[in-house]
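pasting for ref
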Amino acid sequence: MPIEVGQKAPNFTLFDTEKNKVTLSEQKDNNVLLLFFPLAFTSVCTKELCSIRDNIAVYNNVNAKVFGISVDTVFTLGKFKEEQHLNFPLLSDFNKEVAAAYGTLYETFVLEMKGVSKRSAFIVGKDGLIKYAEVLESAGDLPNFAAIQAVLQSL
């Protein structure tokens, strides 16, 4: 079941590309933007994350931490982050537990891949509640960044 606005955000701990553990509940000094994306090195995912990279000041100015999350390994995400010069953490949900908790997994993706994250955006407020939730069925679509920025500015 997808997560909805007003619900408590499922807590998680995932490894980032530096092999450090990142726990959602430890981010309570900031609003958090979670961006689930299908796969590193794909065209739309690259476009999405590079858009965040190029506009990171917008998120920093509203005291928001941004995390990109996919089912790729930390090693794949590390290479992707390096090549695209991404300036925010990428987290590996290789075991697919977090995407499942947020209701954002494709049963079957392209090329019969199972358990790939749907492109999704969630804002978690400092109070641990979901303030914005968007789960896209089409991997070719991008989140509504104007709506995301408006919600973050209102917090």
